[in-house]
Amino acid sequence: MASATFSIWRGTAEQGKFFNYTTEISEGMVVLDAVHKIQAEQANDLAVRWNCKAGKCGSCSAEINGMPRLMCMTRLNQLPLERPVTIEPMKSFPLIKDLVTDVSWNFRVKKQIKQFKPRPPDVPDGSWRMQQEDVDRVQEFRKCIECFLCQDVCHVLREHHKHEEFIGPRFFVYVAALEMHPLDMENRVEELAKAKGIGYCNITKCCTKVCPESITITDNAIIPLKERVVDEFYDPIKRLFRRLRR
Amino acid sequence: MAQAAASTKRGLGTTERRDLWWVEPLAVGLGLLGFITYATWAAFQGNHYSFGPYISPFYSPEVFGDSQHSWFGPVPAWWPAFLPFSPALLILWAPGGFRLTCYYYRGSYYKALWADPPACAVGEPRGGYRGERSFPLIIQNVHRYFLYLAVLFLFFLAYDVWKALWFTDAAGAVHFGIGVGTIVLAVNVILLGSYALGCHSMRHLIGGRHDELKNAIFGRNCYNCVTVLNRNHMRWAWFSLFWVAFSDVYVRLCSMGVWTDWRII
């Protein structure tokens, strides 16, 4: 049976190292299978977060050979196995232990975003009428599994640690799903420009590249939101028209 | 089980990535710098920019100039002598500004030319970061105004294609015809149109700003067409960039007598 070596980050926020583990691999294995095998046979105390093993829970996010990916969706036959495969925790969040990071910052950010506020019902029975095409546009954003790989790869969080001023691609997708919803009446544009820091995004599209759900984060969520911010704050002609209309 | 070095390093190019992550930013950087170098050189030449009914897209519209395409005749007497003159210098700022502020190019040159970041999940050379929320990069928000100009230029370039269909013979008579140059200029308009009309700002203005597409200015079908173009915005950006430079090369070399413009009809 073939074998492969995995260089896994072990340690806490204070100190840590890569440890090499060689284990047997077989056809169809994913990185998470190998990590489980190592955990069972060589490193019982290896901390790894996982749940569904089907790419839907977003728990097993890590950095495999330097790129943010889901361990359960990364097949070993996609990786060069001549050298040890590196597996590291996400770098945008505080490390708890080994491959497990504290992603609770994301949940705190989500709570601060203005909730869905539908317009009054369209018909007396309390229901609304929407065009399928309008709903389809925001449906893409609802595929998000909150794996936070996009947050991990975003250099504004990863390199520059702007966690206090920038909500990150995941939550721009969330805001886009609300802001572009045909029923929603809330206005989130001002807070996007100010407290949520959309101006920090410099459109490198790394978030789109790593999204396991193939959400077109930059083109369909962030840039349309940036354009709405331009409408509100940076387009003098639009501002003039708005003033005249009042 | 063996121990290896810890991954705590930071700085330019620091990464655990094993793939050739530097190839894309390098290729993009060389492509952009190559274009900028050629376009600057061509713009300062001020000659060999027209040939028969053809005019180089770098020089169109020719507001002042010596060719038959000039709108208002030769360079005006009031033009300051200390300033170099070329018809291209009067107009190239508009399409140049459109590309400079384009969302696709922004993302590309931030990576390729400013290493901010050099590639995804790769370390950066600088600690500080202000993004596009303060001066100078906040100016990128002017993009939609350059879009308006770019759309205007499409009409000028389309008119140039129309003019490129009419050839004057030795006797001075004007005949309909199609030369290779006509096709070169027509392809240029198609590629530039696909690039400019698929721009993210266009997508927003044409309907994306509405939560209900029935309110889109030219209807939802128009929005959908722009969306289709937008999906391949990067490709249109590169194809059009290459072709606009090639169009200038074609007209220039024909004008210099290096290439012969073959007549198809």
What does this molecule look like?
The complex is a heterodimer of chains A (246) and B (265). Chain A is α+β, with helices and mostly antiparallel strands and 246 residues long. Chain A has helices at residues 31-41, 104-111, 132-139, 149-153, 155-158, 169-179, 189-193, 206-210, 217-234, 236-245, and strands spanning 3-11, 16-24, 61-64, 67-70, 85-88, 95-97, 100-101. Chain A folds into two domains: 3-101, Ubiquitin-like (UB roll) (Roll); 104-245, Fumarate Reductase Iron-sulfur Protein, Chain B, domain 2. In chain A, the strands form two sheets. A five-stranded mixed beta sheet of chain A has the order 2-1-5-3-4. In chain A, a hairpin with a 2-residue loop joins strand 6 and strand 7 (100-101). In chain A, helix 6 (169-179) packs across helix 9. With 265 residues, chain B is mainly alpha-helical. Chain B has one domain. In chain B, strands 2-3 form a two-stranded antiparallel sheet. In chain B, strands 4-5 form a two-stranded antiparallel sheet. In chain B, a hairpin with a 2-residue loop joins strand 2 (50-51) and strand 3. Strand 2 (16-24) of chain A pairs antiparallel with strand 1 (2-4) of chain B.
